[in-house]
Design a protein that fits this description.
rod-shaped; 321 residues
Length: 321
């Protein structure tokens, strides 16, 4: 601007050998250089802002927009709530199936009490008959051992027969050596054998009659066990699903926080770049307006000076002629 200032400071009547057009060209060149400098500043500010625009867009694209992240978080929360409800239902089903299984087992135990007792009594009678009666009958036990075996078998003799004479005669017969037994003793032994067989048959009949009901109870227990196992498995699956849902919700929460932080982190720098760009544009506009005004004044003054010079030349020509 020094060329413009110095030129304008010259007196209108100052004789300058330099051609006015050359001065204007030089001044215009200076104006263009200054204008280019200011334009570059604006372009730099625009580029910085554009760079930040792309950075912000890239960051938000990578981590979703804040709105999308919020939507994803709400969806994750809803899914977590859904899984919690499913787990509650599954847990209730486990409790229900457990109670049903407990009831079926109780019914089985109560229903099978007679069977269990009959089976145990049958097995005990069979073992007692084999270990005690057969050994005493064959004479395989004598003296003290024979008396011990007799003591074990006496309750079963009373259990299997109501004939008092048989109960009374049995001990003496069983303690006798086989070679000393008579026909009466043989009758006693045969009756004892028959009584044992009849009692065992009674147990077998009792067990056979109870078998169908026992089978039904066993099937009910098996069904209840299967239902309880299925409920427990479902509870486990839903529990795993809930854990995954909570983890997804945790990740979604982190994404929202990251998206908000991204916007918050870049907002000040983005704002500063925008303000810088606007300030540079304003400076450029002010400079252009000022330069145009100065140039216009320069042009008018040069034109006025030129007109005076032409008028003076014309006047001189008139005087000459």
């Amino acid at each position: 601007m020094s060329d413009i200032t110095s030129f304008l400071a010259e007196d209108d009547n100052d004789d300058d050998d330099e051609d006015a057009l050359m001065i204007m060209a030089r001044i215009l060149g200076s104006l263009q250089v200054a204008l280019d400098t200011e334009t570059e500043k604006v372009a730099g500010a625009e580029a910085k802002k554009a760079e930040l625009d792309q950075t912000v867009k890239a960051q938000i694209t990578l981590q979703f927009t804040e709105t999308d992240a919020e939507v994803s978080l709400q969806a994750a929360k809803a899914y977590t709530s859904e899984c919690e409800a499913k787990l509650k239902t599954a847990s209730e089903a486990v409790c229900t199936s457990k109670a049903a299984l407990t009831q079926r087992l109780k019914e089985q135990k109560q229903g099978d009490e007679g069977i269990v007792k009959a089976r145990a009594d049958k097995e005990l009678l069979e073992s007692t008959k084999s270990e005690c009666f057969e050994k005493l009958k064959s004479g395989g036990a004598v003296a003290k051992e024979a008396k011990q075996l007799l003591k074990k078998i006496e309750p079963f003799i009373k259990q299997t027969g109501s004939d008092a004479s048989l109960i009374t005669a049995a001990p003496a017969t069983l303690l006798k050596p086989p070679e000393e037994r008579g026909s009466f003793d043989q009758i006693v032994l045969d009756q004892l054998e028959a009584n044992f067989t009849a009692k065992l048959t009674e147990f077998e009949t009792q067990l056979a009659e109870a078998a169908p009901a026992a089978e039904v109870r066993a099937q009910e227990v098996q069904k209840a066990e299967s239902e309880h196992e299925a409920a427990a498995l479902k509870q486990k699956e839903v529990s795993v699903e809930l854990c995954a849902a909570k983890e997804a919700q945790k990740e979604a929460t982190a994404v929202v926080a990251a998206a908000k932080k991204t916007v918050a982190d870049y907002q000040p720098e983005y704002q500063a770049a925008t303000e810088t760009r606007d300030a540079k544009k304003e400076e450029l506009e002010t400079y252009v307006d000022g330069s145009l005004a100065t140039f216009k004044e320069l042009k008018e003054r040069i034109s006025a000076k030129k007109r005076r010079e032409l008028a003076a030349a014309a006047k001189a020509m008139c005087k000459k002629y």
